[in-house]
Specification:
alpha/beta, 13 helices, globular
Length: about 375
C-alpha cells in the first residue's frame, strides 16, 4: 500500500517516464534496471522496449522487474522509432531517454528534474556521463556524452570532456550548470510540452545524431538545453551494437547524419555559406583517410550518394523546421564553435581539450 507521504511526494514532483530500448542485451539491461530501483525520486515509471531480442532479455525483465512496463516489439526498430512509439503515447510531464548500457546514481533524476523545472524555456537537460570501465579507477568521461555537447558551424560535434578521440579525465573542470548545444541520447530528460510543440525525434536518421537534431530544433524554437553535472551516470558505450556492425556502419551513419542536420536546420542562405567549406572538409577527410581508414572514406562517398538521392526529403524537412523557427541562424551560431573543430584538432593541433575551444564560442 502506498503511504500518504508517498502520495503527497508524487503530487509535488513532476511525473517522469523513463524509456529504455534494449536488444539482445540481457546483462546490460539488468544492471541498468537494478540501478533504477535505487533512484530517490517518487514520481517516475520505467518503460522497457524489448526490440525483438533473441537472448531472453524480455523474459528476464518480465520475471525480475515486474513493476516495469514492458513493450515487446516484433522488430529491432531504430533509436528514434523505438522511442517515438512511447513518446507518442506518454502522459508524463517529462520523458527521459536512457541507454540500456548505463548505470545511474540514486540522485541523478532528482537533480535533472530540479534543474529543468526552474525555467520553462529549458527544453532538455543531460547528466554528466562517465565511462563505466573506469568507475572507481580514476573517473573518465564517456565518449558519446561526456559533460554536454557542442557543435562547430560546419556540423562537427564535440563534447565537454571529449574532442574527437581525445577523452579527458573528470577532475571537476566542467562541474558548472550551464547551457550547452545538445544533450546526448545516452541520457536526456525532455520536456514533453516541447516535444509536442516541435515534434519527436526524426526517424530519417536511423541511429546517431537524432538527439542533436532535436536539440537544434528546440533552440530554433527559442528554448535552451542544459548540462547538470551534479547528476551522474555511467555508460559502457556501444553496448547494443555488435562489433562488426559498429565498425561497418558507425562512420557512415555519423557522417551522413551530421550532414542531414545541416540541411534540415540551417536557413538556405546560411547553408550556401557553410556547405562549400563542409564539402572541402569532406574531401580533405577522404584524402587523409583514404588509405589508412577505407571505412571512413567509404562513409563519405555513401553519405554523398544518400544526400543526392534524398534531396527532396531534405527540402521538405527544412520547410517543416522553418515553421517552428523563432530565432535566426545568427542567434544560433553564437552558441557554436565559430571555426572548424576538425581542422583545429587534426591539422593545426592547437586545440586538444574542450577548454581550448571556449574562446571560439561567442555565447559561453
Amino acid at each position: 500500500m502506498v503511504s500518504k507521504v508517498e502520495k503527497d511526494s508524487k503530487k509535488k514532483n513532476p511525473s517522469v517516464e523513463i524509456i529504455v530500448l534494449t536488444h539482445n542485451s540481457k546483462e546490460n539491461i539488468e544492471r541498468c534496471l537494478l540501478s533504477l530501483n535505487k533512484v530517490k525520486y517518487s514520481n517516475f515509471t520505467v518503460t522497457v522496449v524489448d526490440q525483438n531480442s533473441e537472448d531472453g532479455t524480455g523474459e528476464m525483465v518480465k520475471k525480475k522487474f515486474g513493476k516495469v512496463n514492458l513493450i515487446r516489439n516484433e522488430e529491432n526498430k531504430s533509436f528514434a522509432a523505438g522511442n517515438n512509439d512511447v513518446l507518442r503515447k506518454s502522459k508524463a510531464d517529462y520523458c527521459l531517454l536512457l541507454n540500456d548500457d548505463t548505470e545511474v546514481s540514486p540522485d541523478f533524476l532528482a537533480e535533472l528534474v530540479g534543474e529543468i523545472k526552474k525555467d520553462k524555456r529549458v527544453a532538455a537537460v543531460q547528466p554528466k556521463v562517465l565511462d563505466l570501465k573506469f568507475k572507481g579507477k580514476g573517473e573518465k568521461f564517456e565518449y558519446a556524452a561526456a559533460c554536454g555537447g557542442f557543435i562547430d558551424i560546419y556540423g562537427y560535434p564535440v563534447c565537454r570532456g571529449r574532442i574527437f578521440d581525445n577523452i579527458e579525465q573528470d577532475t571537476g573542470q566542467y562541474d558548472d550548470v550551464r547551457e550547452i548545444f545538445w544533450a546526448s541520447g545516452v541520457c536526456i530528460l525532455m520536456r514533453m510540452s516541447v516535444v509536442r510543440e516541435i515534434g519527436k525525434l526524426d526517424e530519417i536518421f536511423g541511429s546517431y545524431a537524432e538527439e542533436l537534431d532535436w536539440c537544434w530544433r528546440a533552440q530554433l524554437a527559442g528554448y535552451k538545453i542544459k548540462i547538470v553535472p551534479k547528476s551522474e551516470i555511467h555508460h559502457i558505450g556501444s553496448g547494443t551494437w555488435g562489433r562488426e556492425k559498429l565498425s561497418r556502419e558507425k562512420e557512415y551513419l555519423l557522417q551522413r547524419n551530421h550532414l542531414i542536420i545541416l540541411f534540415k536546420n540551417y536557413s538556405l542562405r546560411t547553408l550556401m555559406r557553410v556547405l562549400p567549406s563542409r564539402i572541402m572538409l569532406e574531401l580533405i577527410t577522404f584524402g587523409a583517410f583514404g588509405l589508412k581508414n577505407p571505412k571512413k572514406s567509404l562513409g563519405s562517398v555513401r553519405s554523398g550518394i544518400w544526400l543526392l538521392g534524398n534531396f527532396p526529403r531534405l527540402v521538405k524537412r527544412n520547410r517543416e523546421v522553418k515553421k517552428i523557427r523563432k530565432v535566426s541562424d545568427f542567434h544560433i551560431r553564437k552558441r557554436m564553435i565559430n571555426k572548424s573543430a576538425a581542422l583545429s584538432y587534426f591539422l593545426f593541433r592547437d586545440r586538444k581539450k574542450f577548454s581550448d575551444f571556449v574562446g571560439d564560442i561567442s555565447k559561453y
